[in-house]
Amino acid sequence: MYRLALVFLMMLWGILSCMGQPDTSVPILQHKLLNANADTQKINILLQLADVYVGKKGENTADLDSGLLYIGQAARINYRVKDPRWEARCYYYYAKAYREKRMFDEGKTALLKARTILEPADLPGDLGDVLMEYGDCYSIDEESQLKEKIRLYEQAGELYHRTGDKKKEAYALKMTGDCYHCWGKFKEALVLLNKSLALYKETGRKDLQGVYDLLGIIATGTGDYSLGMTYGLMAVKTAEEQHDSSLQLCTIYNRLGITYYQLGDYTHAQESLRKALKIANRYKDTVSFLMVSTNIVGTYLKTGQPEAALALLNKIVEIYRQPIFKDRLWISANMVKCYSAMHQYDKAKAFIPQLQSLSRQMSAYNYYQTMIYEALVQYYLATRQYIEASYYCSLQDNVCKNIGLVNVLSQNYLRWFQADSALKNYPAAIKHYQEYKIMNDSIFHVAKAGQIARLQVQFDIDKKDKDIRLQQQNIELLTRQGQLQQSALNQARLTRNVIITGAFMLLLLLVLGFNRYLMKQQNNKQLQQKQDEIYQQNLALQRLITTQDKLLEEKEWLVKEIHHRVKNNLQIVMSLLNTQVAYLHDADAVKAISESKHRMQAISLIHQKLYQSENMALIDMPTYIRELIGYLKDNFEEVQRIYFDLQITPVQLDVSQAVPVGLILNEALTNAIKYAFNKNGQGTVIISLLRQPEDQLILSVSDNGQGFPPGFDVFTQGSMGTRLMETLAEQLEGTISIQEDEGVSVIVSFKQQIG
After folding, report:
1. Owning domain of residue 60
2. Per residue in 350-398, pLDDT tens?
3. Distance (Å, rounded) from C-alpha 626 to C-alpha 632?
4. Is residue 142 part of a domain?
C-alpha cells in the first residue's frame, strides 16, 4: 500500500507540475538530456548545464569542474556534428569557466578560436557574446587594457543592435559606460548609461539599481549633487524593492557615501560607508573592503581625525600586501594627507616620489591624477614649499576643468589662493579666492538642492505608494464580482476534475491491488516449495555432519593408538637390547647397543608426546628437549657435572621434522657428554633453537669443552653418529656444520614446514 500511495503522489505531482512554469534547474536539464534524441539538442542542453554551474555564485572548484565536464561532452558530440556555431559556443563557455578559475591566458586562447570561427559565419549575436567575454578578460586599472576593454564592449553593442537584442545591447552600453566612468570620461559615460537605462525600461526590466548607481556617482563627480543624490537614493530604493543583498549593494552604499561626502555631510557619509563595509565583510571581499575603507579614511581626515585615518590605513596595508596600481595610488595619497595633518612631514615625504612616479605613468587627464595632485598640494602647503604647491594647483586646475570635477576644483582654488598669498602674488591670490567663493556658493546651493531632491524623491515615492494603493482598491472593487464568478466556475471545474481523477485513480488502485494479490499468492507457493527443499537439504547435511564427526573421532582414536603402539614397540625393542647386553662381553658391541637404545628413546619420546597431546601432528619442542635431556641425565654419570643452558624459542614441529631433529639432538648431546670434558672437569652445554626470517630455524648444540684432538677431521674420521647427523640434516632439507672454537658447536639450519 505504501508503494501504491507513492505512485499516486508521483502521478499527482506530474499533473500539477504540468500546470506550472517549466523548470530550468539542473535535475530538469539532466532529465531533458536523457530524453534528447538529436545531437544538436544534446549540445544545447549540455551547454545550458555548463552555464548553470559556471554562473553559480562564489568560486567553488567542484562547480567549475562540473561545468568544464559538460562543455567537454558537448564538444565531443559536436566533433561528429561539425557545426561551426556550436563549436564556437563551446569555446565561449570554456572561456567563461577559465576566467572563473583565473586561467586568463587559456580563456583568451579559447575566445580567439571562437572569434576566428564566428567572424566569417555572419552570427552577430554569438560574436557579440564572445567580444563581451573577451572584454571581461582585460583590467580597468591600466589605461591600455581599459581602452581595449571599451573597444570590445562597443563592438559587441553594435552587434547586439544589429540583431535587435535590446537586453544584451543595454548590458553592453552599461558596461561601456562604466569603463568610461573609470577612465574619468564622464560625458561619454553619461550618454551611454542613459541609452542603457532607456533600453532596459523598454524591455520591462526592474532591477535597474546598477544603472542608477553609475548615473549617480558620475553626476556627483561632475558637481551635479542634486542629480547624484537622486540617482543614489533611487539605486538604494530599487535594490530594496528587488531584495538585492548581493555585493552590488556594497557599491551602491559606498557611492552614496561619496555623494554625502562631497556635500560635506560627513555623518551620513560615514553611515552609508559603514553599511557598505558591513556587506563587504559579510562577503569577505578584500577589494570592496579596501575601497570602502579608503573612503572612510577621507571622512576621518575631513572631521579632524588623522590618527584614526592612519590606523585604518595601516590595517589596509597589513591586509593588502601587494596592491594593484590604483590601490597603491589611494594608499600613498592618503598616507601623505594623514602624516601632513599630523605634522609628521618626514614620514609624508617618503611617499612623495612614489606619487610623482605614479603620476607620470598615467595620462594627463586621468581621474586619479586629481588624488595625487590634491595630496601633493596639501603636503607642499604644510611644509611651506609654496612654489611647488602653486605648480601642482595649476595641474589640478587643468585636470578638473577637463573632467568637470566641480567640488575638487573649488577646494583647489582655496589652496591656490593660500599658495599665492604666501608668495605675495596678490592679484592671482584675489582672483583664485573669488573663483573659490563663486564655486563654493554654487556648491552650497547645490547641497541645498540635494536636500530638496532627497525630500522630493521621498515625496515621489510616498505619493507613488499612495496612488498604487488607491488603484489597487479600485481594481479590487471593480473586479470582485468577476472574481467571484470566476471562482465559482473554477470550483465547478475543479470538482469535476477531482471526481474524474479520483475515479480513475480508484480504478487504478483496484487493478494494482488485485494484481498484487495474485503475485503474492504465487510468491507464497514458490516460497513454500523452496522452504521444503531447504528443510530436506538441512536434514541431509545434519546426517552427513554427524557421520563425519564419528569418523573423525575414530580417526583420532586410531592415530593415538598407533602412536601408543609405536612407543610400546620401541620400549620392547629397548628391553630386548638391554637383555642382549647382559649376554655380551664385547665392549664395542655393548657400546653400539647403548647408543642405539638412546636413539630409540629419542624417537619413543616423540610418539609418547603425540599420544598424550591433543594435537596429534605437532611436537612442542621446548618440552620435548627438556624431557630428552632428563632422559640422558638418568643414563650418563658424567651428566651431573655438566650445566645445560637452554635457549629454546616456542616452536612446534611436524612429526616428520621432529624425529630427525630429536635424533640430531641425541647424537650431539651424547657426543658432548662423552667427549667434551675431562672426567673430573665441569662444563656447559648450550642448546638453542632460534627462529629466523622466512620461517628459517637454527638448531645449535655448543660446549665449552676441550674440542677435537689435534689433526682430527670430523667429516673424514668421524663416527657413525656424525654420518647419521649429516643424513638427518639432508632429510630436513637443511645444512649442518660442526665447528671448533673454544669447544665444539653443531649447527643445523632448516626451514620449518607450515601446514
Report:
1. 21-137
2. 999 988 888 888 888 787 888 889 889 989 999 999 999 899 999 988 8
3. 10
4. no
